[in-house]
Amino acid sequence: MGHRDGVRDRWGTRTPYGPGDPWPVRVDMRLADGLTEADVDEWVPSAAVLHSNGDGLDIAVRGGRVVGVRGRGDDRVNRGRLDPKDLFGWQANSAPDRLTTPLVRVDGELVEASWEEAMDRVVAHSKRLLDDQGPSAIGFCTSGQLFAEEYYTLAAIARGGLGTNHLDGNTRLCTATAAAALKESFGCDGQPGSYTDVDHADVIALFGHNVAETQAVLWTRVLDRLAGPRPPKLLCVDPRTTPVAEAATLHLAPIPGTNLALMNGLLHEVIANGWIDEDYIGQSTVGFDELKEMVADYPPDRVAEICGVPEDQLREAARLLGTAERLTSTVLQGFYQSHQATAAAVQVNNLHLVRGMLGKPGCGVLQMNGQPTAENTRECGADGDLTGFRNWANDSHVAELAEVWNVEPTQIPHYGPPTHLMQMLRYAENGTLRLLWVSATNPAVSLPDLPRIRSILSQERLFLVVQDAFLTETAALADVVLPAALWGEKTGTFTNADRTVHFSGKAVDPPGAARSDLDIFLDYARRMDFRDKDGNPFPQWHDAESAFQAWQQASAGRPCDYTGLSYAKLRTSGGIQWPCNEEHPDGTERLYADGKFFADPDYCESYGRDLVTGATMEPVEYKAMNPDGKAMIKAAEYLPPHECPDERFPFSLITGRTIYHFHTRTKTGRVPQLNDAEPEVWVEIAAEDAKRGGIEDGAVTAITTPRGTIHARARVTAIREGVLFLPFHYGYWDTADPAGRDGGRAANELTPTDWDPVSKQPLFKTAAASIAAADVEPPVHRPVGSDTEVLEDLEPRGASR
Amino acid sequence: MKIGLALRELHRAEKNLVRDLLKVSDRHKAEHEIHHVARDLAGWSERHVRDLAEAGRRYDLDLGTSVPTSGPLGTIREKASELTRGLAQPGLLLLADLRRLHRSAAGVSLDWELLAQGAQAVKDADLLALAQQCHPQTLRQMKWSNSMLKILSPQVLAS
């Protein structure tokens, strides 16, 4: 067992294996300095929460404190391995600046308050708004970090209790396109493939997915295959030369914003060369002819011109994909946060449908997530869909949900799709949404066009509630701040990108008066006095386990069926993939193994949208198109991005992640090893561009878009010429301007407000930008662990208005 | 034969639709999805205008390939939208504009219907193919305005 230095040794030692063999166990561990396993009082089962991979681990407890983590060798996801963030990230739980008491704004300042006082304010404001305008005045922006029990409860409170349509997660930024692409192709959300497909594949294609940094342990699995006998070939599509690109058999670096043209071009070649499974297409799909007709317009020479990728590389890539015997494809933000996101991600599904490669070992599509519990927001109905993958446009689904909750169907808004996050912000901007409750996320750093976001969140007329473990940039703007427990301080379950459900136990008590998010939501419901049809308090559950049981009931008979699971079963298992029910007591490794889908008109989660306009399809249209519930092959034409480089802004700006940080560094920035690994924002630029612009490696630069300017040190890399890359993690809490009122550091100061019309995922990878050497002092951040009293630094809220 | 008449009328209607889409895009710059998608959809009608002009030549029509642009008024409309982005009132204007847009697209759709019927009657296969290629996009423009109206109206009307 390794006491691994995950900073210098990002993926650990190789344990090579061959196709079809089980991935060998390698247990990683990290304990506080000086401790050994013998010093640990208790190991509490859990899984990783600083990425979407869902690596099983045990939390080490000594003397009532978290003192480390150890990977679970019996876990199906990681076989003992841990991501660098998880090796060190647990230290954030005991950071000195945890929020330990509620805060309320008095005369422009956040001051300490009791729970009674804080919740009374929230409840009084909610009731006033309900009287004055109704539920449309209230919205919830939740997270990708809570547990299933918490999302399910929040969905019940928002939709069944208040009756508002405004509930979404910041998972809108990370996983909305995955859900949308699956719904478009298969009629329903639900990851078709499994991580074990890596064990069998002979070709692995990664579309806009820098798995080496976003899901380090899954990349370890790939590296171990590459080091073993008969390794798979890798295809990487990414404008950056990432670690994946460096290891790839073939690396395509398209111009940002042209993914759909690229995919149409690849499909053109696959179809033209007859690398298709006509039996599968005939039996299990509809829509192939439209695709064939569409991609006929995308011959290699045209696509080469649009995407800036050489023709021979396109042909070679198509050959790799077309002649693979066991093709596994993964998709992430390079597609999801780029122009025509859903349309491009759907073409990856199409690739597998035309090749008949689904549901078999090594033949999987993995439409990935960015955050650890993103999958649960989708299932539980906290991310723009109804609970249990129910269809808002299908009245019988709404009636079913109303029966589960024992409320009137009319209480659950279903006159349109649930409001997505960016639209909610727009409603807050125009003053029609007047209470926004943010839980465990940080829109003041993570959303695009931050000057606009700050101006919305700091309006006097918007009542902002922020529930978090730290005083984030968003919390600094709040009217009420509610201190929340973190992972390891509460009980629950969560599900990773390949449908693996893990139990996460309470290892220690939360600090001070902090409470679990579940307890906070339930407390609100009781104070609001929500009642079901029989006059009983709603929600009818009261703690994590009863919430889980209620959620199981709500999931019964749906694709994400949890009825075969229990806390006891999960506690001792190495992760179980849903659906798990009587029929599949050990879970389900791959969906759609029999060529049957969840797409029947009466069962499907969505009737679909127009891939270009985003218009919702009517039930009758869906029934006419897909009466037998087959997989749907949907084609779309390429359109140029909405913001293209020009003379003034000659670069394409893309944003992304580093392996050492998660989201807005709320946790990872408070961990010395991770913070020291990448303490400051940087910008990547190609050598030729740097030379032309007189920019030296390490020099401070100013990056500008029509939204603003930030400063960052240059890293001259092998990124595609004409493209700039910025990591999006860096905000302001660790600077002298903790609410970020003056901007200047976060990548999202620069990104535009534009989203995919289908998935509503904001686009972070199609801004036009300029860069120049800057004669300024580099940004300064405070070192981790300094005993700065954060509250003192807060300006009164009115100051910027 | 009155095919030329139908072509001329459709050409005029598609130009109007371009104008309407751009106007909606400019007037509602603060509604980001409307702003961007309306411009994408104007692109479809722009192509229809050029294709119709091309087809018109075979019927001795000089319809012209020029398409409307936002012009200087567009910039003023965009500015006005940005200045009023904190107000709820433009919401009603948006509903009215989407409603008008839907009717305008419906008119274009009917005109394509007529042209396709005429093309079949005079056995002009090229003209029929053009109608079959363009008309579905008009229907999608209609569905979009309808869909956005349906999705955005509850908040405008309830607040």
From TrEMBL, chain A:
InterPro entries, per database record: Asp_de-COase-like_dom_sf, CT_Nitrate-R-NapA-like, MoPterin_dinucl-bd_dom, Mopterin_OxRdtase, Mopterin_OxRdtase_4Fe-4S_dom, Prok_molybdopt-oxidoreductase
Annotated region (Disordered), positions in chain: 1-20, 776-801
Highest taxon, organism lineage: Bacteria
Pfam families, A to Z: Molybdopterin, Molydop_binding
Keywords on record: 4Fe-4S, Iron, Iron-sulfur, Metal-binding, Molybdenum, Nitrate assimilation, Oxidoreductase
Signal peptide: none
Domain 4Fe-4S Mo/W bis-MGD-type: start-end pairs: 41-97
SMART domains registered for this protein in UniProt: Molybdop_Fe4S4
Name this polypeptide is given: Molybdopterin dinucleotide binding protein
Taxonomic path: Bacteria, Bacillati, Actinomycetota, Actinomycetes, Pseudonocardiales
UniProtKB/TrEMBL annotation, chain B:
Protein name as catalogued: Uncharacterized protein
